[in-house]
């Protein structure tokens, strides 16, 4: 008896599934023959496509954002490598003349001095063609400059250490009865990347340098990065 019941239930299930498939096929056939039904189906497909396009756009934006973040991270990693790899090395020292003796100046206006005899120039921050040091690392720097005057040929010597056009420290030597005088000054200052430092000869003044290594010099180095 139980076996007959199970067979009947199985037969009913098969008939129901067959009927459902036939109904689904009938609905599709009906939709294809009905313009209104077909329009609804097309609208539904269009909405689904629109949603997919929107998601694709969002994915594109996210991808570009990830690329930007990756580039930023790579720059930060490179900077970290540079810092953790040791203290940035910035230092230079130069004298005014490559050889010989003689005066420079006087000029009618304040003039940056071009120290052409380079003793050292680590990181190439000093430009002997212009006499200008340009910071490539933000940090605290030490600068020292000297001047010499041949009093046999007045006028006096006046030079100033200058940062971005602003005088910071000056060496002055007035002509007198002695033969030669030297003077020097120094500062410790903070610099941003791109700041310029140079020594400026005042208008109507001069500096002297001697072949016996009595020099007019300009030197500086990075104390520590910030």
TrEMBL record:
Residues 1-20 form the signal peptide. It holds the Pfam family C1q. GO terms for cellular component: extracellular region. InterPro entries: C1q_dom, Cerebellin_Synaptic_Org, Tumour_necrosis_fac-like_dom. It is found in: Secreted. Keywords: Secreted, Signal. Its main location: secreted. Residues 85-226 form the C1q domain. This is C1q domain-containing protein. It comes from Esox lucius (Northern pike).
């Amino acid at each position: 008896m139980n076996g007959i019941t199970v067979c009947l239930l199985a037969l009913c299930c098969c008939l129901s599934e067959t009927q459902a498939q036939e109904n689904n096929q009938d609905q599709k056939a009906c939709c294809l023959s009905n313009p209104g039904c077909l329009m609804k189906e097309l609208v539904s497909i269009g909405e689904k496509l629109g949603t997919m396009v929107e998601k694709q756009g969002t994915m594109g934006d996210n991808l570009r954002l990830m690329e930007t973040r990756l580039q930023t991270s790579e720059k930060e990693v490179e900077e970290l490598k540079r810092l953790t790899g040791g203290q940035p090395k910035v230092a230079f020292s130069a004298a005014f003349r490559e050889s010989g003796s003689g005066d420079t100046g006087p000029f009618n206006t304040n003039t940056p001095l071009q120290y052409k005899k380079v003793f050292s120039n680590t990181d190439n921050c000093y430009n002997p063609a212009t006499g200008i040091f340009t910071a490539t690392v933000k940090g605290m720097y030490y600068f020292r400059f000297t001047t010499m005057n041949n009093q046999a040929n007045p006028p006096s010597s006046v030079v100033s250490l200058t940062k971005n056009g602003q005088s910071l420290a000056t060496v002055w030597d007035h002509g007198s009865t002695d033969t030669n005088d030297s003077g020097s000054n120094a500062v410790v200052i903070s610099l941003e990347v791109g700041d310029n430092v140079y020594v400026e000869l005042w208008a109507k003044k001069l500096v002297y340098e001697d072949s016996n290594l009595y020099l007019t010099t300009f030197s500086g180095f990075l104390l520590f990065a910030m």
